[in-house]
């Protein structure tokens, strides 16, 4: 081998003809004249002028870009204006919906947003635009959450089988290129590329989940498994909307997240209660076992526009009964208590939880406690002081007391509800009145 190398080495030297080697000479140093030649080249045919004009156009574009964006934003549906006033970690976001109606929302800021002092910031520059799946996004809570995420500048894919959800809840987003709607049952697997998964798909009202209890368990168990599997596969963050029903008929009051609950595992409500408890177990096991990022919210009674008209939940029942001039049905003696949270407060809490670093579970609810009779009084005051009450026997496993302890969410998420029942109820009543008065809409919900 060495011999071969030596041979080839010698041959190379030998192969170079003497005549060629003698032709080699180092590159001549540039003559100073070449500089003047370059200058004269630039000056010829107004080349320098063209270069200067190019630089001028380029810099003009960069200087004017923000104001060009401002002008063109008039044609956009959603312009986000971030205010400069930050209270702690919260930022107030003003956005305009498709009807040009201005809304202001407060969003958790921890680590997720870059702050800009220059007033209006184009969507996508202030923070990285996320791609988000919302299962059950055509339902009551889901559709409000989708509105918030879209207004914030994210891309949202809604997955819904329309069991209790309605296209009407998201129809205002149909023209928006950042919104997609997929008719799909979460019991079946699906593959999508997203950053975050809000898993809401599950009927929330007793009327609907008792309609097909086995299907409800499938939705909670197989649906949650499928969404956790998706989160694991694509490395997305997963948020489960669990419920205060995991506390059952609680022996501890108010309920803290540390309370393990008092649930009847074989009752008529257990398809929902135990279904959600299993969904929480699956979520934690995927977190511990597969290391996926998870969040768990335990939602307490929530009300607001877009709730199903006749879904058996107490607020929607009372409101639709009074609008239809029917007596309000109170089950039992009406002394059982509930807390009522306005939907925008819940949506703020869900987003704060998703964007924060804590797994949970977190109680998300309004601690203001009302008996059913007190609620009936507020509904009367809001709609019709002459409305009547009708008493009926209580339903099985109806909890006597329900009130969240939200100190954990207050402390770690910097979240607490802001809208009182007296303020929120009229907003829901207006929506219900419009829908009940619209005959087609009324029929569509029956
Ligand atoms: N609203 C409340 O007071 C409340 C309280 C506690 C928990 N939650 C939870 O919040 C979530 C949303 O509740 P909501 O009040 O908006 O209820 P909702 O019934 O209005 O919405 C549920 C949505 O999920 C869809 N869905 C149901 N099963 C599905 C399936 N198998 N595949 C795909 N989509 C399916 C429905 O069509 C609907 O759009 C639920 O998980 C519920 O358990 C709500």
TrEMBL record:
Membrane topology value: Single-pass type II membrane protein
Location(s) in or outside the cell: Golgi apparatus, Golgi stack membrane
GO cellular component labels: Golgi cisterna membrane
Domain (NAD(P)-binding): residue spans on this chain: 134-426
Gene Ontology terms: biological process: D-xylose metabolic process
Its job: Catalyzes the NAD-dependent decarboxylation of UDP-glucuronic acid to UDP-xylose. Necessary for the biosynthesis of the core tetrasaccharide in glycosaminoglycan biosynthesis.
Protein name per Swiss-Prot or TrEMBL: UDP-glucuronate decarboxylase
Species of the source: Olea europaea subsp. europaea
